[in-house]
Write a structure and sequence with these properties.
Distance between the termini: 47 Å
Number of strands: 0
Strand content: under 5%
Order of helices and strands: HHHHHH
Shape: globular
């Protein structure tokens, strides 16, 4: 049942992404799905769902397969890795991380297409598009949080960061 829900949300995301634009730049909402999969499903499943979203996006784009597969898988893995190993989630960190991960995603896609095919746009235009897409996705970082964000002391890795040594209880 959960897979049907993911499929429906992904389908709606592709429809919204294809029909909305700001300054002639379409938003990169599929990064938000890969980010959410990573923070909710941990490293392996986040990378798997991100790669699955990326291969569907590559199939629909009409170009060669691979750039979105790589970049969305990377976003799914890195989003989980950041929250499970280094940081405790806060709304500000959510904004910053989705901004950075959107920038990484768009940069990987641009470099892959430039390296293996002809350059899709000039470097200045690519920087503008990446900046706008990152700014559009950044506010969504407030609302997307890991499962254990409401109680950070129950996090799998949180106690190791706060108390490096076990305290003996008598």
């Amino acid at each position: 049942m959960i897979y049907l829900l993911w499929a429906a949300i992904t389908f709606l995301t592709f429809i919204i992404q294809g029909s909305v634009s700001l300054f002639d730049v379409t938003p990169n909402l599929t990064v938000v799905l890969a980010y959410y999969a990573g923070i909710r499903k941990k490293e392996f499943k986040g990378m798997f769902f991100g790669s699955l979203i990326g291969i569907v996006e590559d199939s629909l784009s009409g170009t060669f397969l691979g750039p979105n597969l790589l970049s969305k898988g990377l976003v799914g893995y890195l989003s989980s890795f950041v929250y499970s190993r280094f940081f405790i989630w806060t709304p500000l960190l959510g904004i910053i991380s989705i901004f950075v991960l959107t920038s990484i995603d768009s940069t990987v896609v641009f470099i892959s297409r430039s390296f293996f095919d002809k350059i899709p746009v000039s470097t200045g235009s690519a920087a503008f598009i990446i900046a706008i897409q990152s700014l559009l996705n950044a506010p969504l970082g407030i609302f997307l949080k890991p499962k254990d964000a409401s109680n950070p002391s129950q996090s799998q890795y949180c106690s190791a960061r706060i108390l490096p040594y076990k305290i003996k209880q008598d």
